[in-house]
Amino acid sequence: MNxxxxxxxxxxxxxxxxxxxxxxxxxxxxxxDLIFKSLFTNQKRYGYPSCPCRLAEGxxxxxxxxxxxxxxxDPDLLEFGRCYCALYVSDDYTTAMGAGxxxxxxxxxxxxxxxxxxxxxxxxxxxxxxxxICGNEVTVTKAGGGVLxxxxxxxxxxx
Length: 159
Ligand code: SF4
Known about the structure:
- With about 160 residues, the chain is an alpha+beta fold.
- It has two domains: about 5-100, Ferredoxin Thioredoxin Reductase (Alpha-Beta Complex), CATH 3.90.460; about 110-155, Immunoglobulin-like, CATH 2.60.40.730.
- Helices cover about 30% and strands about 10% of the residues.
- Strands 4-3-7 form a three-stranded antiparallel β-sheet, with no helix packed on it. It has a two-stranded antiparallel ribbon with strand order 1-2. It has a two-stranded antiparallel sheet with strand order 5-6.
- Iron/sulfur cluster binds near residues 73 and 83.
């Protein structure tokens, strides 16, 4: 239960809009609550409900494509039967389909890549990196110095 004012309003608004526009929400209510809470957290953080499964920049113009419902929802529903976060699902969706991840449709942002030169890249063989979005993990076998990117974002150094 989330006691913040506005949470129930956001939840109601998304649910009602889905019904009105013919979209279906994930039937797993516990999972749905997690997504709603994350959307509400982002709304408080950025002033808009950016996608809970992607890293936002906090700049409305940059994040416009991932404000829920994102512009990738419909093509993902058509191709995979769910949106990237599995908030929206197709009629024939089963909860088992939500177990894995689907490919990130959002293009790698040029803005992020243009900043690569300012950041610390791979230094040593054996460093492990994880994608904060899809969970991919990689271990460096040859250090080239560049920054590793997955799902359009810089990967996180684990060790
Ligand atoms: S992937 Fe789903 S939850 Fe995330 S912004 Fe798009 S529609 Fe919303």
